[in-house]
Structures are given as C-alpha cells and as structure tokens.
Specification:
Shape: globular
Strand content: 15-25%
GO molecular function: ATP-dependent peptidase activity; ATPase binding; serine-type endopeptidase activity
Protein name: ATP-dependent Clp protease proteolytic subunit
InterPro entries: ClpP, ClpP/crotonase-like_dom_sf, ClpP/TepA
GO cellular component, one term: endopeptidase Clp complex
Organism: Mycolicibacterium sphagni
Number of domains: 2
CATH superfamily of the largest domain: 2-enoyl-CoA Hydratase, Chain A, domain 1
CATH topology of the largest domain: 2-enoyl-CoA Hydratase, Chain A, domain 1
Radius of gyration: 21 Å
Order of helices and strands: HEHEHEHEEHHEHE
C-alpha cells in the first residue's frame, strides 16, 4: 500500500499526538502518585506538626501544605508549626498564595503559631520566597539557596505586551522587597537589585545567612 504525502503527514501527526498524550498521562500519573506518597508521609507527622514540602511550588503542593496548616490550627490553636522544604520553585501566584497563608498563621503575621521553615537540599526561585514567611528561617549546612528575577512568558498585541510587562515588573519589585524586608538590614534595596538583576544567584548556607535570607544554619 502506498501513502500519499498528505496521508503520511496525517499518520505522522497522529502518531506524535498519541505519543504526547501518553507522555502527558504518564506525567500526570507520576504527579498523582508523588502527591499520594507525600500526603501519607505528612499524615504520620501531624502529631509533631511537621510538613514536608517536596516538589514544585504549584497548586497541588500549595493546597496540601495549606490543608495541614488549617488542620493544625483547628486542633491546636497555639502549636509550633514546622515546614521542611526542598523545591526548585514554581508559580509566583501559587507561591504568594501560600506565602500569605503561612504569614497569617505565624507570630510575625499576627497569628498564634511559631512557624519554622527549614531548607533541605535546595530552595530555589519561588521556594526561597516561601522561606521568608517563617518566624524562624533555617537552612541545612549543605543546602543551597537560589534567587533570581521573576520569569514569565507573554504574547499578544503591543499594548497587551506592555500591560503584562508592567504587571511582571510590579510583582518582581514586590518579591524583591520581601527579601530586603526580611534581611534585617543585611541587604539593602540597592545591593539586592545588583545581586539578582539578569542572573541566577546560587548561595550556599553561609552566603544565604550572610545576606540575611535565613536566620541560622542548622547545627551552627
């Protein structure tokens, strides 16, 4: 049987679409499995109020963490809360959602819970902003901390591009202010702007402490 050029293209497109669909379904299954394992893991730590935030800053992980915080607040309105984080970052909006939630429960935010967030291995991008919500910010001695400017995508007409860029710049400015405010004077606005403009900044535990992005290095 001989295929015409158009039939061959259609068959090829159908095959590629099938592959992409299968890859997407596999990725969704893996994500669902990871979240099930995380929920099971965290369920064992409800008595000590410990949540393990492992993975991307996305709606699923943010929701899981927020649900734990709400549960602990309901059963023990003045308990200490602990979050251990290992994350390469993710969505700014999902992250700011959780940042506000964490802050609301913390003593510094007017809540009744001492909130400790500990970096394990890596906190990068939006994950480092989450760390700033804590009353006590801790980093493991061999862990890393990475900050950079907001990254995003846009498309559309010139006016739409300008509107989106104005929004991005406003969010970028606010995120920078959060780092500076929590640095306790160790990092001025000018220093921070110079630090993160147009580059990814990788900091070890000692450097993150030196800039005031964490309060202490675990074990030090």
């Amino acid at each position: 049987m001989t295929l015409t050029t158009e039939e061959f293209r259609e068959a090829y497109r159908a095959e590629k679409l099938g592959q992409l669909r299968a890859e997407r379904e596999l990725a969704e299954l893996r994500t669902a499995q990871a979240l099930r394992e995380e929920r099971h893991f965290n369920a064992t730590d409800d008595m000590v109020r410990q949540h393990y935030f492992i993975g991307a800053v996305d709606s699923a992980h943010v929701s899981a963490c927020a649900q734990h915080l709400a549960f602990w607040d309901r059963i023990d309105p003045t308990c200490d809360m602990n979050v251990e984080i290992h994350s390469g970052g993710g969505s700014c909006l999902a992250g700011l959602n959780l940042f506000d939630t964490l802050t609301r429960y913390s003593l510094r935010g007017g809540g009744k819970h001492k909130l400790t967030i500990t970096v394990r291995g890596l906190a990068a991008s939006m994950a480092t902003v989450l760390v700033q919500a804590a009353d006590e910010r801790v980093i493991g001695p061999e862990s890393f901390f990475m900050v950079h400017e907001l990254s995003g995508q846009t498309a559309g007409k010139i006016g739409e591009l300008e509107d989106t860029m104005a929004y991005y710049r406003k969010m970028n400015t606010r995120i920078g202010e959060i780092y500076v405010e929590r640095s306790n004077g160790k990092c001025t606005p000018e220093q921070f702007t110079k630090l993160w403009t147009r580059q990814d900044v990788w900091l070890n535990a000692q450097e993150a402490f030196g800039f005031g992005f964490v309060d202490r290095i675990e074990g030090a």
